[in-house]
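Q: For a teaching handout, I want to show students what a protein-ligand complex looks like in token form. Below are the inputs, and the small molecule is flavin mononucleotide. Please produce the holo structure.
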Amino acid sequence: MVTKNIFEILLDKFTPWLKFSPELVHEKQVYLLHLLCLLDEASNNAWQQWDAFSWKQLNFPNRIGIAGGVDKTGANINNWWQLGAGFVEVGTITPKYQQPNPGKIIARDQKNLSLWNKMGFPHPGFEESLWNLEKRLSEKQTPILVNIGKNRWTPNEKAQEDYQFLIHELHSYADIFVVNISSPNTQGLRDLFKKQNFKPFIKSIYQTSKEYKKPILLKLSPDENEESFDLIVDLSLEVGFDGFILTNTTTQRTSELSFPTDGGVSGKFLAPFSKLALQRIVKHLGTEKKNKLIINAGGVFNYEDYLERRQLGADLVQLYSGIVFNGPYIFKKIAREHFLKYN
Ligand SMILES: Cc1cc2nc3c(=O)[nH]c(=O)nc-3n(C[C@H](O)[C@H](O)[C@H](O)COP(=O)(O)O)c2cc1C
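A: Here is the structure, written as tokens, with flavin mononucleotide included.
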């Protein structure tokens, strides 16, 4: 039985992180998580093991993990394990240090359970992630996905060099690579999906990943029309990609949201777009799905949402907004629902 301890009860009651600006929480998140896990050291993760899954000799103790951007450098990998994540995605990692985009970069809409961000891959540079990943190698509890991106000043014609460089540098620590060209916050990045750019770009990256025999996934945008979505999927399969993460944040808006018009939205608002993309890919892949990995992210907040995504065909599910609105014990809360249902 997964009982609530005092830390979970207090966080549920006071949701202290929602009382501060999202910028401040984001800035201090690494330390806050370390502190929580230190205080809650008695929290055992026996409940981490449920609905386990294996893929290409990788063993996932459960099918819920953190999405790209939650742990950009890999500073909290062991904390996510302690909190019950079934896998961890680190990144988006860029080759060199870069600042976030100027101005406001993150906002919360509590009423609509949605987030807005315009971060643009802030990262201290790959060395820091390499160091963090290396530190966790000997105590590994789950598969680690490494999400890679380009520095904003690298032109699209040379983008593959950034991705290939990161695969060369990080292959010893990645169980799976994730190619991120679907962020709306790096100018021109999504142009790499355009027909004339796409195939040569992904082919070269795929070849590099296979030098190290690493599975490689493509993270998709929810904003492609059906025709280009299908083409992107078909070309990725033709090249040999091992699966997809869907989706990244959306640039779509309705009047219910008060967010700026640039940047990307995630959370509840994204859920219908993410589910549509999931249904579309499952239908499109048909029998070709076989051994391809499908990971779904976008507005998953509880066990019910998780089950729905699994039923729609997701092998694995990821959380970002769910952690922000429901707190770091969300993995435990979902496991608890599972155990209540089956025990
Ligand atoms: C503040 C913020 C930063 C993000 N940074 C990244 C990132 O660096 N790389 C990435 O692939 N996705 C990033 N994402 C997108 C998430 O990984 C995820 O695809 C999206 O938020 C949908 O999931 P959610 O509805 O559970 O938040 C970010 C999302 C947010 C809200």
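A: Two things your students might notice: DSSP finds eleven helices and 13 strands in the chain. The two ends are 8 Å apart (CA to CA).
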